[in-house]
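Hi F.,

I've been meaning to write this up properly since the lab meeting, where we talked about keeping a consistent format for the predictions we share between groups. The idea is simple: the sequence comes first, exactly as it goes in, then the structure tokens exactly as they come out, then a line or two of notes. No screenshots and no reformatting. I'm using this chain as the first example so we have something concrete to point to.
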Amino acid sequence: MPRIPLVAEADMTAEQRRVYDAMIGGQRKSAPVGPLAVAMHRPALAEAMSALGLVLRFNSSFEPRLREFTILLTGRYWDCQFEWASHEGEARKAGLSDASIETLRAGGSVFAAADEQAIHDYGMELLARHFASDATYRQVQALFGTAGAVELTGLIGYYAMIALMLNAAEFEVPVGLVPPLSTTQQRR
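Output, unedited:
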């Protein structure tokens, strides 16, 4: 059960209803779940998060394997059970190897694919050190171009925000699922 009550459809304000209806009728074609359900307390935030998520997740220049790798990397860094549970299956469907998924789950740092290794190194430097070294940035830029480096940074930042939103609300995995991650951080 989340730490905060989710906005019930019957109790929505006019602004919440407008954002909710836009999500159902738009590209998402679903009611807000997870972080968007949490953000519905501030409908303008939910709307902005949804729009950014559509760009980064559904209109990405990154192939799905690398996009899902980045999402799992970020979710693992933040120990976000819901984010991981929501994307592990998507990562498999996108062609991410079981070895890469298990390495990410275990907090490992060595990957067979050069593109995954570059994303891992860049993401971990940004998340843990708050900066990326020149060498690491140049590697990402050489592989994905300047626009790709910008998008990758946005993808990491967006899913960090999602993880923090979910963790702050103590949003757990859906009922019936076992939390997929051992946590590395102490709670409270």
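Notes:
The mean pLDDT is 92.
The helical segments are 14-25, 34-39, 43-58, 64-77, 81-93, 98-105, 114-129, 134-168.

If this format works for you, I'll send the rest the same way.

G.
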